[in-house]
Write a structure and sequence with these properties.
The structure holds 2 protein chains of 2 kinds. By secondary structure, chain A is of the alpha+beta class. Chain A has 7 helices and 4 strands, in the order ααααβααβββα. Classes of the chains: A alpha+beta, B alpha/beta.
């Protein structure tokens, strides 16, 4: 556990990031600036910035992305890892472009989640937690996504797909396989 | 899915069914931003806190702490900036009310936060939304931009001396961040570990400054309290539980949804059988978890014919709690051992690892539940599980440990048969103590 970080107890200034760091477009830099402007303390922007870096670096925090975050926020590389490894939505390893997160908590479980999971996995030929050999699909079982009244459900990227049936699942996966699936949320620069 | 009010005029869901309900225009045409105007036209911060106290509004996130009292703990003479943080990290299994409040009526939350910020003297405020609800952050950002454009946010709001800003913030998948001190750690850019109380956030919260953390549903109740007056709001409910409450209904009912009920709604059985249109597929009711996964499970026998009153006191008397109002209904196909295993897997995954009883306790519970599920149950397992729960409950750093223990304790107590059948066959009928 690191020391409690507060404005009165700042991290040492010598936290300088060595080596190469990721480079982003001016648009992405501007998006990052907008987030930093919300907070009196830069480090508060760590989660929003991680989502941006993850999006820009192929879906996960790679070492160059982590170095960028440390540099931009004025903290140590280990501070970035410390936070990144705590939050389940921050990926520290590559995931597929189509990341299917199936809710497995109670309401979804009793309303048909096992059947949905079985269908998705057998169609893609992988087990929960795995990525297809071509790297395009990842399937995860996740905890409650707040869609209990419209169970069963999964999240694809940031999009909710609810009241799922095997037919609906097929229709969505068909679109992904043809690369015709258009992400509705979280792919634009506004967060 | 049903979204609406039963047995009362809809307050929180008043605009939820209107076309384009997210827009400032629709909000204003339906009574929106009248409360903040009333406040700025002549109410002092103390007047506002007084009305909220009179309303008997209790925190809707799960703990049920009186909101007016929470606000009054913020020291008035502190030279530090003050913060209002909206807890929109809705992650309690079975709960999805905040989601629809923000999806359908984002300006109601903005107005509630403005009033809270005025009462507490806060200039900068945050809405901490769970990361999975990205589409809600997009909705809130659009609504905030609209409000800013209309002079309802920023400098000198509506021509008054009051200046205030609200920003969205994203979580990233951690149930623990719904606990208010963990939320503040997360908002400061740290791991979402809870902090020691006292000092309470009202004294030392975000950036060690006085901070009030309120749930979405709590803050969205505030505009109506100001408009109708605290006393009138309280009278919609009971003496100790004012106003109306949202219940997120899921599971084996014919009509799941978000239901707004007056506090003190008189009969849980009627609610399930009539308002939620009964149990699906002609099955029988087996159990209800009325307040999100962390509360005590209720067997059908504690609901049917018992006139269970749906408010804080009524549910405690019936052996459970209001919690977050995540109302999970289970029919007689459900094995309560299995449903309890599902929940303890959740708590193990979400335990933040900060304190030993919760981190190790939930881990061992999962190991035991999995072993039993694999057909290797032992007669002493029920007692072993209860001992473990006893070493978590009241001994963990934050309420997550209690929340993990309660559903298990009540499940074993109320549904011993469902546990016995997993332990007995392998032990040749030996007696199992549960």
């Amino acid at each position: 556990m690191s020391q409690q970080f507060t404005p009165n107890n700042p991290l040492p200034q010598e936290a300088k990031v060595p080596g190469e760091i990721a480079v982003f477009s001016p648009e992405v830099e501007a998006e990052i600036d907008r987030h930093l402007a919300k907070y009196p303390v830069k480090r508060s922007a760590i989660l929003p910035l991680m989502f941006i870096v993850q999006r820009e670096r192929g879906g996960y925090l790679d070492p160059l992305g982590v170095a960028y975050l440390a540099d931009r926020l004025g903290v140590r590389i280990t501070d970035i890892w410390e936070v990144a490894t705590f939050y389940s939505m921050i990926n520290t390893e590559p995931v597929g472009k189509y990341h299917i997160q199936i809710c497995k908590t109670l309401s979804c479980k009793i309303m048909g989640e096992p059947k949905i999971t079985e269908h998705v996995c057998s169609r893609l030929g992988i087990r929960p937690g795995e990525t297809t050999p071509d790297g395009r699909f990842t399937v995860s079982l996740v905890e409650c996504l707040g869609s209990c009244g419209t169970a069963p459900m999964f999240q694809l990227g940031f999009d909710y797909h609810e009241n799922l049936t095997t037919e609906k699942v097929d229709e969505i996966l068909d679109r992904c396989e043809r690369d015709e699936y258009v992400f509705q949320h979280g792919r634009k620069d506004e967060l | 899915m049903f979204i609406g009010a039963i047995d009362c005029e809809p307050l929180q869901l008043r605009r939820a069914g209107l076309e384009n309900s997210q827009s400032l225009d629709v909000y204003r045409k339906n009574g929106g931003y009248e409360a903040i105007k009333k406040v700025l036209d002549g109410m002092s911060p103390d007047d506002v806190i007084g009305e909220v106290k009179k309303s008997a509004l209790r925190g809707r996130g799960g703990a049920g702490f009186p909101t007016g009292m929470k606000w009054s703990f913020v020291p008035k003479d502190s030279p530090k900036p003050k913060y209002v943080v909206c807890n929109a990290d809705e992650s309690e299994p079975g709960t999805f009310k905040d989601r629809y409040l923000m999806e359908r009526d984002p300006h109601m939350l903005i107005e509630g936060m403005l009033i809270a910020a005025y009462a507490l003297g806060a200039r900068t405020n945050y809405i901490y939304t769970r990361g999975e609800y990205r589409y809600l952050i997009e909705i809130m950002d659009r609504a905030l931009a609209e409000a800013r454009e209309a002079g309802l946010l920023g400098e000198k709001i509506l021509g008054s001396k009051f200046s205030c800003d609200i920003y969205t913030h994203t979580g990233a998948g951690a149930y623990i961040c719904g606990e208010e001190t963990a939320l503040l750690s997360s908002l400061e850019g740290l791991r979402g570990h809870p902090r020691m109380k006292p000092p309470f956030p009202a004294v030392s919260g975000l950036y060690q400054s006085p901070t009030v953390v309120n749930n979405v549903e709590t803050l969205t109740a505030v505009p109506d309290i100001i408009k109708m007056g605290g006393e009138a709001y309280q009278k919609l409910g009971t003496e100790k539980s004012g106003g109306t409450k949202l219940w997120s209904v899921s599971g084996h009912v014919n009509r799941p949804g978000v239901f707004e009920l007056p506090m003190g709604y008189d009969d849980m059985e009627k609610f399930i059988m009539e308002d939620c249109q009964g149990i699906a597929n002609g099955r029988q009711l087996k159990a209800v978890i009325p307040g999100g996964s962390s509360v005590y499970i209720m067997p059908a026998g504690d609901v049917i014919g018992k006139d269970v009153r749906m408010d804080y006191e009524g549910l405690v008397a019936a052996g459970s709690m209001v919690g977050s109002g995540g109302f999970i209904v289970m029919d007689d196909t459900v094995d309560v051992f299995e449903s309890t295993k599902n929940l303890i897997e959740f708590y193990k995954h979400e335990s933040c690892g900060w304190c030993t009883p919760c981190r190790e306790g939930t881990d061992w519970l999962v190991k035991i539940f999995r072993r039993i599920a694999n057909g290797e149950g032992r007669p002493e397992d029920a007692q072993l599980i209860l001992d473990l729960c006893d070493n978590i409950e009241g001994k963990s750093f934050c309420p997550l440990g209690d929340a993990a223990a309660w559903p298990i304790q009540s499940a074993i107590k109320k549904f011993p048969e469902d546990f016995k059948k997993h332990l007995l066959p392998l032990t040749q009928g030996e007696a199992v103590t549960v």
